[in-house]
Specification:
By secondary structure, this protein is of the alpha+beta class. It contains 13 helices and 13 strands. The two termini are 31 Å apart.
Length: 382
């Protein structure tokens, strides 16, 4: 296998910018960012181009299953290990979920009880200033980073319930103009997974406050004659996000008051009609993470990954109207769809790439193997 430094040199010769340079200057105190992207990317030292010939197909969801199934599987004996560009299409999908790190300096820390729980864009913070009984902006160079101040909640809001209600009213007041796609679903606001909950926040508002959001993604697969096939869903065109794009068999955010395994069972039933007698066999297999800045939105997501080996006779049936249809597709072909197109909802690609590692479809002999493996957890995994 080619060494890491040689892979970095190869990438630098092909692209205009590198992950390491993009994450070189993290603006927030390292006391609160021990797993920051800058530290991760300094060790990875890879670079990729945002759009190359291997991902020339549009990400718009106006494609058909025929388009998907028309992407061929690699021929037996096709060069993959020795082809230095083979993993390039996968690296691009990592980039799609990790944009905008150079804009981190535009965000203010969101601090509650001396814990940084999120990051708020300075422009979005201007919309919060009129709610003086809810948000305050204390001056503090340590927390304040580039602005010498940070965002916090008014000290009269002492309990999680009071904070949830007060911030919820602000979100409603700002409305669809500033926080589109309000779902009336609450996410817990914590400093890390399993830590005490400071309050709960409308799901659609989570990226505008830069809180850590958690979700579950399940790879549902069937084994036939020693070969694996993945059940893939095509999202409804009525979905407010990523309409018509490809998705996992089961996936969903982790709302307040439910644990991961129970959420898997709930989503299995709602999204694919999988009964609890089968869904309880889903195995937790790890997590992926990413950090994506887009305008005022700062997504800091951790996705818990599950695998479920389904009976050959099982056929999924969507129950909540969020999926138009399903197809059972060979894993080798799914891998090529991810490499060569942008048909998948971006974060689904990360989870499937992780699946490809764990099931031996991406091998250590492939050029850039360890770089790609590490890049699946660029976001703060805590």
């Amino acid at each position: 296998m080619t060494c890491l430094c040689n892979f970095a040199s190869y990438c630098s010769s092909r692209t205009s910018s590198s992950f390491s340079s993009r994450f070189a200057s993290h603006p927030f105190p390292m006391k609160f960012a021990a797993s920051s992207p800058s530290r991760v990317m300094a060790s990875i030292q890879i670079s990729i181009k945002f759009a190359s010939s291997s991902s020339s197909v549009s990400a718009i969801g106006n494609f058909t299953w025929d388009d998907v199934l028309g992407i061929p599987s690699p021929q037996p004996g096709a060069a993959t290990v020795d082809d230095s560009s083979y993993l390039h299409g996968y690296f691009e999908k990592i980039q799609l979920c990790n944009r905008g790190s150079e804009k981190q300096s535009e965000f203010l820390p969101f601090v509650i009880e001396e814990q940084i729980v999120g990051f708020v864009h300075n422009g979005f913070a201007d919309h919060l200033r009129s709610f003086r009984d809810v948000f305050i902006f204390p001056k503090d160079k340590f927390y304040g980073a580039h602005f010498d101040y940070y965002v916090s909640l008014h000290p009269t809001l002492k309990t999680p319930e009071e904070r949830t209600s007060a911030v919820g009213n602000v979100v409603k007041s700002l409305g669809e103009e500033w926080i589109p796609g309000i779902r009336n679903e609450l996410y817990p606001v914590t400093s890390s997974f399993g830590a005490p909950i400071f309050f709960s926040l409308e799901r659609a508002a989570a990226p505008y406050f830069g809180i850590k959001a958690y979700g579950i993604h399940m790879n549902g697969y069937v084994e036939r004659n020693g070969l694996k096939q993945l059940w893939i869903g095509k999202r409804s065109q009525a979905k407010p996000t990523y309409p018509g794009m490809l998705d996992h068999l089961v996936a969903g955010g982790l709302p307040h008051g439910i644990d991961c395994q129970e959420n898997v069972a709930k989503e299995c039933e709602e999204e694919a009609g999988i009964p609890r007698s089968i869904s309880i066999k889903a195995k937790p297999v790890g997590a992926v993470s990413y950090s994506d800045i887009d305008g005022y939105r700062y997504k800091r997501d951790v996705l818990f990954c599950y695998d479920l080996n389904l009976p050959e006779s099982f056929v999924p049936k969507n129950e909540d109207g969020e999926v138009d249809s399903f197809k059972l597709i060979p894993v080798t072909q799914v891998a090529e769809v991810i490499r060569k197109t942008q048909f998948f909802k971006p974060n689904c690609s990360l989870v499937i790439i992780d699946f490809l590692f764990r099931h031996g479809h991406i091998r250590p002999e492939s050029f850039g193997y360890l770089d790609l493996l590490r890049s699946l957890r660029i976001g703060e995994c805590s």
